[in-house]
């Protein structure tokens, strides 16, 4: 029994080994001393379909010029009796394809579900792909003598149709075909529009096209839109915005330091806003060159300013108009008259001696406890002092004069 089991195991291992050899030999290149018939040209097993392993490699040119390259393998012309691959130039590649076959990297591939080409194209009624499989697109204007499908991730080779190159996007897994540029003399190539990326990358959309980037690289005027499925790298809506966290206008939290609009003007009761230039920071707003912001005068503690500005000591009113033409204490407001215990000096209210502006610069407060007394209290104290002094003088007179006579 043990001997029978051993023979069975050996047979199974032999079968597995043969199967692996067959799989690995899906594309067989000609080697020295071998016949060229039905062999792929050296280093031309370079077409990958459905994966990256040896079993996914197919041929792009036959070693024997008269062979036909069908479904990624080189076959004798007599085997391809229906000329699914048209090879009249004997170059080891196909020049055009028959119905239900399409051109791809030198060979003609069937759209049959059992064939490798079905992973690229599902319909090709006249030798040209008309329905690309997932992960591929059809280049505009392709004929049966052109390669008629391109991988969405093929950002290098692509395919040239009528002198114009159409290619994919690096690391792209799903895309839409680019528009034809056949009538645009200034353009020589066009890339597909990526809709989904491979691995953990996300689609970044710019005015120049799409790309696949890491989430950490989605910055400098872009943000990761987590509301999209899959997530995508979206441009901030506000012009010249460097940092934002959501789509839509007035969502910027930091402006770029270059360009014209470098000042962040925040919305009321918000930490985000839009980017403006100096000319755009008008009305009751002021420029803060250090923070690179355009802020409301009132947010800095000023009142009723027509315009304001930031100086070394802080934000002050710059212009007063209408019925409030006088600068208040410390120029923190515009008033029609100066507060109590202050006077107008030129165009600004200044506290009288012994008084200083309050914390909010709205009133003058005494600099010591004594001057904090009311006018009535001060008058009473003065009268009392006169009475005391008068009494003391009278007593001294009586003591020295009257008693001396006695």
Topology:
Blueprint: H1 2-24, E1 47-48, E2 57-58, E3 68-70, E4 73-75, E5 85-86, E6 96-97, E7 101-104, E8 107-110, E9 121-123, E10 131-132, E11 136-137, E12 150-151, E13 159-161, E14 164-167, E15 172-176, E16 189-191, E17 193-197, E18 202-206, E19 209-213, E20 222-225, E21 232-235, E22 241-244, E23 252-255, E24 263-266, E25 273-276, E26 285-288, E27 293-296, E28 307-311, E29 314-319, E30 326-327, E31 334-335, E32 342-345, E33 348-351, E34 355-357, E35 364-366, H2 375-405
Parallel strand pairs: 14-16, 18-21, 24-27
Antiparallel strand pairs: 1-2, 3-4, 5-6, 7-8, 9-10, 11-12, 13-14, 15-17, 18-19, 20-21, 22-23, 24-25, 26-27, 28-29, 30-31, 32-33, 34-35
Widest sheet: strand order? 19-18-21-20
> Structural class given helices, strands, pairing?
alpha+beta
Computed CA radius of gyration, to the nearest angstrom: 44 Å
Describe the main β-sheet briefly: 4 strands, mixed
Beta-strand level of the residues, as a percent range? 25-35%
Q: How many strand units?
A: 35
Q: What is the distance, rounded to the nearest whole angstrom, between the alpha carbons of the first and last residues? A: 160 Å
Which residues form runs of ≥5 with pLDDT under 50?
A: 1-5, 13-24
The pLDDT mean sits at: 88
Inertia-based shape: rod-shaped
Signal peptide: 1-25
Transmembrane segments: 377-401
Pfam families: VSP (PF03302)
Protein name: Variant-specific surface protein
């Amino acid at each position: 029994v043990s001997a029978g089991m051993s023979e069975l195991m050996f047979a199974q291992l032999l079968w597995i080994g043969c199967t692996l050899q067959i799989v690995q030999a899906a594309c067989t290149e000609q080697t020295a001393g071998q016949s060229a018939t039905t062999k792929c040209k050296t280093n031309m097993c370079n077409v990958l379909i459905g994966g990256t392993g040896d079993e996914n490699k197919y041929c792009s040119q036959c070693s024997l010029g008269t062979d036909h390259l069908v479904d990624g393998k080189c076959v004798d012309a007599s085997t391809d009796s229906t000329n699914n691959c048209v090879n009249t130039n004997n170059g080891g590649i196909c020049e055009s394809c028959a119905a239900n076959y399409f051109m791809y990297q030198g060979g003609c591939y069937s759209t049959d579900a059992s064939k490798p080409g079905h992973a690229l194209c599902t319909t090709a009624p006249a030798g040209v792909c008309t329905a690309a499989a997932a992960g591929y697109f059809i280049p505009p204007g392709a004929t049966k003598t052109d390669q008629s499908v391109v991988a969405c991730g093929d950002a290098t080779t692509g395919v040239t149709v009528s002198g114009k190159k159409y290619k994919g996007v690096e690391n792209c897994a799903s895309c839409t075909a680019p528009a034809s540029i056949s009538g645009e003399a200034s353009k020589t190539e066009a890339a597909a529009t990526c809709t989904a990326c491979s691995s953990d990358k996300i689609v970044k959309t710019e005015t120049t096209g799409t790309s696949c980037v890491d989430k950490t690289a989605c910055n400098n005027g872009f943000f990761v839109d987590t509301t999209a499925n899959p997530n995508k790298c979206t441009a901030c809506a506000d012009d010249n915005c460097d940092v934002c966290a959501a789509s839509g206008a007035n969502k910027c939290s930091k402006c770029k330091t270059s360009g014209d609009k470098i000042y962040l003007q925040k919305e009321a009761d918000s930490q985000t806003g839009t980017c403006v230039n100096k000319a755009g920071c008008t009305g009751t707003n002021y420029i803060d060159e250090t923070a690179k912001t355009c802020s409301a005068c009132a947010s800095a503690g000023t009142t009723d300013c027509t315009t304001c500005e930031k100086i070394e000591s802080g934000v002050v009113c710059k212009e007063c108009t209408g019925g409030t033409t006088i600068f208040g204490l410390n120029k923190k407001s515009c008033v029609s008259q100066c507060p109590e215990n202050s006077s107008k000096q030129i165009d600004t209210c200044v506290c009288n001696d012994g008084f200083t502006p309050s914390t909010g610069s709205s009133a003058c407060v005494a600099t010591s406890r004594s001057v904090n007394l009311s006018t009535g209290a001060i008058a009473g104290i003065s009268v009392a002092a006169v009475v005391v002094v008068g009494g003391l003088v009278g007593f001294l007179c009586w003591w020295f004069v009257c008693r001396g006579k006695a």
